[in-house]
Amino acid sequence: METISYEYEGALYVNLTNKCDCSCVFCLRHNGHKGSIYADDLWLEHEPSREEALENLLARDYTQYRELVFCGFGEPMYRVEDILWLVDRLKEQVKNLPPVRINTNGHANLIHGRDVTPELAGRIDTLSISLNGSTAEEYCAVTRPRDGEKAWEAMLDFTRKAAAHVPQVVMTIVDKDKTPEEIDRCRAMAESLGATLRVRAYIQD
Ligand code: SF4
Known about the structure:
alpha/beta; 7-stranded mixed β-sheet
């Protein structure tokens, strides 16, 4: 059974795609993994249609969740139009929908060739963007993006633009082999873009 949505630490996570334009060294999709610590069977043999995803999400009891999170297995913003459609339908049909977050690599504008950030306004409460390094070289070494350094620039530009439309924009780094100086540089960079920095604990594969 493929997993469209799953619960983790009081939040409901949604998995709409395997697609990604990165190949991060730590990505769980490598090495034949089909699931993660969060749920088994995250690899989607077929991507659910927006209607299938809505049916799945409407079957949930939202009084139980503190947040609704669109995230992996791949990069959710490949399906930004479907995410926004789903959020609109859920806001119409679910009383007291919890805040909505998207976990993203920040490449949506590069992937779609247009600025999608204005469309997030009033729909998405939090964006969590992977920063993964304080320089383009470091970023590319870790995330191995299809478009190279252009993806680093696109991610920074996306963050800056999103901060004008989304109440909370957070950039994340994983605390692995990072010096305090590097973390400080990441924090300064995030703040200069209108975001805050969150340092995540490293989870061994
Ligand atoms: S951005 Fe996320 S889904 Fe894409 S390769 Fe990196 S960890 Fe995997």
